[in-house]
Amino acid sequence: MANMRTIDAAAPSADGAMPPLLSLRGIRKAYGAATVLDGIDLDFRRGEVVGLLGENGAGKSTLMNIVSGSVAADDGSVIFDGRQRNWSHPRQAMEAGIAFVHQELTSIGAMTVRENLFLGDYCARRAFIDIRAMREGARRLLDQVGAAHIDPDAEMSTLRIADQQSVEIAKALRSDLKVLLLDEPTSSLTAHEAQALFKLVETLKTRGVSIVFITHKLEETLAVCDRVIVLRDGRLISHRAIADTNRSTMVAEMAGREIRLDVARRADVPAGRDVRLRVQNLSAAGLLRGVDLDVRAGEVLGLFGLVGAGRTELLETLFGARAIDAGTLELDGQPYTPRSPVRALAHGVTLLPEGRKANGILPSQSVAQNITASVLKPSSRFGFLDRRALRRHLDAGLTQCRVQTHDVGQAIEELSGGNQQKALLARCLAVGPRVLLLDEPTHGIDVGAKEQVYHLIEQLAAQGVAVLFASSDVLEIMRLANGVVVLSNGRVAERFSASEFDPVRIVGAAFRYLEQARG
C-alpha cells in the first residue's frame, strides 16, 4: 500500500479487554477520479458476526478485497493479529488466516472437490500426488463445515451452489482461520440451505472466528449479526450493536433518504386487456410439462417456484434459448416460434437473465457496448453502423434506467453490481420490447437499486409492456405483480391473482408436485 502509516500492535485496554483482531485505519481507495473508499476506520473482534451493509457502489466489496489482499489501498493501514500488514497477494492473507468467499464463487468447475480444496498444494509422496491423502484430508475439512455428504471425487460443476460454497469455506479451514469474509452468501441458496449456513457461522463464531457478512437481506442481518456497519458512497456512516438498530434505520442510513419498504399491492389486471403472450401445453428442457399461462398487455406476472422448478427454463424457452418439445406459443394472437434469441428479439421479446456476471454482461466491453449490443443489427444501414441511432438508444437507456457511470466508455466490470444490472435492463429496453422476461431481476442488488428496478417495471407495464418475471422472493412478487404462476417440478401448480395473494398458499403450491419427482 502507498503512504502506509506505521502503527504499533495494540495492547489490552485498561479494563483488560483484548485488542481487536482486525483494525482498519484511514483506508482510502480511488479508481481514477472516482473515490471508492474515503478514510475508513473500523475494528473487528474475535468471535463476532458483523453485518456490512450499503447500496451497490458503497465500497463494501472493495473494502473486503483490501482486507483479503486482492486489492491494494491507496492509503491507510491494515492491522491484523497485532501486526501491520501489507499483503501483495491474497494467498498471503489466506495463509495468515483471512478467507474471502465471494458472491461469484471462484472454484474450478472441471476439477474435483478434493482438487479444488488442495489446489496449489497437492499432497505428495515421493514426487507423486497422494490421492488417498487428498481424499482423506478433503473429508476432514468437509466434515468440519457440516458437509460430510459431499463426495471428494465429485466434479465441482455437478454440485449445488450451496455445496460449492461449503467447499470454499472448507478450503479456508486449511489454514488457521481467524477471519471469514462472506459476500452475499445466501443470494443463491434456498431457505433451508441458508439456515444450514447460519448454523455453520454460529459454530465458527464459537471457535473465535470473526465473520464479516455482506448482505442486502436486512432480516438476515438482524437475525445473524452481533453488529452492523453501514457504508455509503465510500464513507463510514454508522456502526451499531444489532440491538440498537432496526430495518428502517438501516435502510435510511444506506440510502441517505427515506425508502418505502411496504409498497401497496398492485391490483388485478383488468380482464379486458388483450393477451400479449399465450403459452399452451408447453413442454421443453426435459423439465417443463404441459405449461399453460397468459400474460396480458400491461400486466406484471410473477413466476414463483423452488430451485429446479423450471422458472429459468421457461423464460429461456420463451426467449428461444431452448428448443420446444411440444405445445404452442402466440404473440398478440399470432403464432410465435422463437427458434433463437435473435428471432425472439426481432419479435420484441427480450430476456434479462439470472447471473449478470456469467450470463449477462459482456466482460471487458464498455458500458456503451453492453447497452447497445441488442440493437447493433437494427442500427446498421448498408452494412455500416448508424452511430446516431446507437447514441439515441444509449442515451435513452442511461436516462430511463438511471445507470450511474462517469464515462460510457468505462468497462462495465468497473460498475457496481446494481449499475451493471441497470445497464442490462437498458439493453433489454433498447429493442422496444412487447414482452419483457426477467429472471431474478433484483438478485444481489441493494434496496435503493431495487426501488429503481421496481419503478421501471411499473413504468413499462403502464406503457403496455407485458412483464413476466421470476423471483424466489414471495414478498417481492406480492408487492410488484398483478398475479403469480407457481411452478412445481416443471408444471403449473396454481395461479393466483393479486387479490388472492397469500404467502403461505403461494409457497405451499410450490411443493405440490415434489413427491412425484422423488418417486
Question: What's the topology here?
Answer:
Blueprint (H helix, E strand, L loop, with lengths): L21 E10 L2 E11 L4 E5 L6 H8 L7 E6 L2 E3 L4 H7 L1 E4 L11 H5 L6 E2 L2 E2 L1 H14 L16 H12 L6 E5 L7 H16 L3 E5 L3 H7 L2 E6 L2 E7 L5 H9 L19 E10 L3 E9 L3 E5 L6 H8 L5 E8 L2 E2 L5 H6 L2 E4 L3 H5 L6 H6 L7 E2 L2 E2 L1 H15 L15 H13 L5 E5 L7 H16 L3 E5 L3 H7 L2 E6 L2 E7 L5 H8 L3 H5 L1
Parallel strand pairs: 3-10, 3-11, 6-9, 9-10, 15-22, 15-23, 18-21, 21-22
Antiparallel strand pairs: 1-2, 1-4, 4-5, 7-8, 11-12, 13-14, 13-16, 16-17, 19-20, 23-24
Helix pairs in contact: 4-5, 13-14
Briefly summarize what is shown.
The chain is an alpha/beta fold.
Number of strands: 24
**The biggest beta sheet, please?**
6 strands, mixed
Helix content: 25-40%
Morphology call: globular
CATH topology of the domain at 275-518: Rossmann fold
The low-confidence parts are: 1-16, 515-519
Domain ABC transporter: 22-258, 264-514
Pfam families: ABC_tran
Keywords: ATP-binding, Cell inner membrane, Cell membrane, Membrane, Nucleotide-binding, Repeat, Sugar transport, Translocase, Transport
Protein name: Sugar ABC transporter ATP-binding protein
